[in-house]
Specification:
By secondary structure, the chain is α/β, with parallel strands linked by helices. It has a single domain, classed as Glycoside hydrolase/deacetylase (TIM Barrel), CATH 3.20.20. Helix 4 links the parallel strand 2 and strand 3.
């Protein structure tokens, strides 16, 4: 079982402003140029490069039903897991440096109403290798909503990401992980090839598994949650470092989700 412990609250301050303050207060000092990148980011060894994945498979569920598959785990013999981040509220400037220097393949599922005020930050992440995917326009709970409303949320964010970044997202994560058959129909209409949930989430105290063995296994999709209220708590890059240490301890590395779906 993998347990990853994480470490104020200003309720009158906007959550996005709180996150900006938190990042500014915890800027990591630059280390000498001769120091290895993995040491700068608190790792004891470099991350192994992920193996070259096979050709992206066609999912049987998509072929038989016409609907995108829903998954939180990728069937693969490769010893990789996948790092994902939601919403776009936490904009830690040091995280851009971390992704670039470690060549860390991360997937960000963005919500326009949350990420929109700071899309420049995500342009920097895209430039250093991050993947940007769809998490709706306004982050509603989709389950039970009419088809037209669900389609507007999913297609609308697809179009926003294409207009802002030139990317065409084909992966989708429903807010709160909640969906119904109408969601899958709307997602298919919006060119979604897979609906991506998570098998484990890194919270403020540990790595919590949604089902199955309470230990990392190859192919797991992991969610790194945001902590927008705790200015004194660990930053996004600090939480990511702790998760990376756990991944390394299990003899795993980080793969690029889009290469496997």
């Amino acid at each position: 079982m993998l347990a990853l412990l994480l470490a104020g609250c200003a309720p009158s301050v906007d959550p996005i402003e709180r996150l900006g303050r938190k990042a500014a207060q915890r800027v990591r000092p630059r280390s000498p140029a001769t120091e290895q990148p993995y040491l700068r980011w608190g790792l004891t060894a470099p991350l192994p490069a992920p193996p070259h994945p096979p050709a992206r498979p066609a999912h049987p569920a998509a072929r038989t039903s016409g609907l995108p598959p829903v998954l939180d785990h990728v069937d693969t013999p490769d010893r990789v897991v996948f790092l994902t981040y939601d919403d776009g509220a936490e904009r830690d400037p040091g995280f851009v440096d971390m992704v670039r220097e470690l060549r860390l393949p991360v997937t960000l599922f963005l919500t326009d109403s949350v990420a929109g005020p700071g899309y420049g930050h995500f342009a920097h992440l895209l430039a250093v290798g991050a993947d940007l995917q769809n998490h709706t326009l306004d982050h509603p709970s989709l389950r039970g909503l009419p088809y037209a409303g669900q389609r507007a949320e999913i297609c609308g964010q697809r179009d926003k990401l294409h207009a802002r970044f030139g990317v065409r997202p084909r992966l989708f994560r429903p807010p709160y992980g909640l969906y119904d058959t109408t969601t899958l129909r709307a997602a298919a209409h919006c060119d979604v090839s897979a609906v991506v949930l998570w098998r484990a989430a890194l919270t403020d105290t540990d790595l919590r598994f949604t089902h199955g063995p309470h230990a990392l296994r190859p192919g797991d999709v992991l969610l790194v949650t945001s902590d927008d209220d705790d200015l004194a708590g660990p930053t996004l890059r600090e939480r990511t470092t702790r998760l990376l240490r756990g991944i390394q301890g299990e003899g795993l590395t980080v793969g690029r989700l889009q290469d496997y779906l």
